[in-house]
Amino acid sequence: MAFYSIFCCVKGSDGKNQTKKQSTWRVFSLKELHSATNNFNYDNKLGEGGFGSVYWGQLWDGSQIAVKRLKVWSNKAEMEFAVEVEVLARVRHKNLLSLRGYCAEGQERLIVYDYMPNLSLLSHLHGQHSAECRLDWNRRMKIAIGSAEGIAYLHHHATPHIIHRDVKASNVLLDSDFQARVADFGFAKFIPDGATHVTTRVKGTLGYLAPEYAMLGKASESCDVYSFGILLLELASGKKPIEKLSATTKRMITDWALHLACEKKFSELADPKLKGEYVEEELKRVVFVAIICAQNRPEKRPTMLEVVELLKGDSEEKFIAIENDEIFKNTRPADYKDGLSAGEDSSDFISDEKEVKQEVEIVKEPNEEIEKVEV
Ligand SMILES: Nc1ncnc2c1ncn2[C@@H]1O[C@H](COP(=O)(O)OP(=O)(O)OP(=O)(O)O)[C@@H](O)[C@H]1O
Ligand SMILES: [Mg+2]
Questions:
Q1: Shortest-distance ligand to the CA of residue 69
Q2: Binding positions for ATP (predicted)?
Q3: Which entry of 4, 7, 150, 243 is 20 to 30 Å from 142 by CA?
């Protein structure tokens, strides 16, 4: 398998042979991971994603790890493992979750990461930590800028460039200092030099998928930009990407936010958990940038480098241009009438019956097992 050859080149950082110059990851034995996770005890389980379960563990030196134990009975998982390991082994950035090692013994395929004590952004926005309200506005801004920097690094500085393909709140982990670490490169594929996009089978999570990607399978950096826009809206508002309003009606976060942004009702856009404590200029910036990122026309979306600049407030001219964009002139702009987010009549709501019928290869509801669904 591809990853063996990669590891052969850089192996040797294990135990006594370790030297400072060598890679910081190593190969773990299954025995060591069994003992670190108390035999993959249910109590150690941090959660479950599309490709397996994640367990908390502690190594003999006291350091805490997160071990992703892949379901290996499908060839697909086998391939994802190779891809993820290859990508992670190469990429290092302060806002990307680094690989600590891996284990491939018998049927077992495991990836070892640093444990992130503040878990995922998802757990703070909608999960087990949401009641604690630990995400004040400063932290949210830091997470927005940090995760943008991590993705910008993948798009513009990693060699070859990398599309993440599954940017979402559960894949933004938070370290002890609430610094964002973008995780899970299992979906990432290398973009060949000179290619503008790679047509491939759709992988991602419902609610974050760019419409051209969901419908035509065209993966490009701008698909990540779209997903990042959804993530920004989620971060600012505390709302989920798709809200279920009734048994048959769902609302996309973009439709809801655009409507309020056009009417300049920023206080209604802010997460009520912030209790009005936010910097209005920054909130406005986040919302405008998010909507520009999550528009249906990929050619109009900014690059992640521009997103970083805009979020930091380093590009006043570009921000003024965004504020004056057509999209914010009407409450029902054309850009949000077509695509995945709305039915024919462009209401703020979409009903199940009106959703575009287009088969997507693999789509996951946030935090749910992979399933084949129609959107
Ligand atoms: N290094 C880590 N430290 C702390 N928690 C982690 C770590 N890695 C993953 N988790 C948490 O474990 C849970 C499962 O993660 P996993 O990546 O398997 O699923 P997911 O992110 O929900 O979906 P996907 O399979 O699409 O990535 C998530 O809640 C995630 O935030
Ligand atoms: Mg994940």
A1: 1
A2: 68
A3: 243
Give the residues surrounding ligand 1 with Cβ less than 6 Å away.
Answer: 46-51, 54, 66, 68, 97, 113, 115-116, 119-120, 166, 170-171, 173, 183-184, 364, 367
Q: Which residue's CA is minimally distant from atom 9 of ligand 1?
A: 54
Q: What is the residue with the minimal CA distance to atom 1 of ligand 1? A: 115
Show the domain range for 237: 121-374
Q: What torsion, rounded to 10 degrees, do the Cα atoms 23, 84, 209, 194 define? A: 70
DSSP E strands, 115-201: 162-163, 172-174, 180-182, 189-190, 198-199
Assess whether 159 and 105 both reside in one domain.
no
Q: What DSSP string runs through 180-205?
A: EEE---TT-EEPPTT-S-EE----SB
Same domain, yes or no: 107 and 162: no
The answer on whether 273 is annotated among ligand-binding residues is: no
The string of pLDDT tens digits covering residues 6-19 is 333 333 333 334 34
Find where tokens 């999209």 sit. Answer: 327
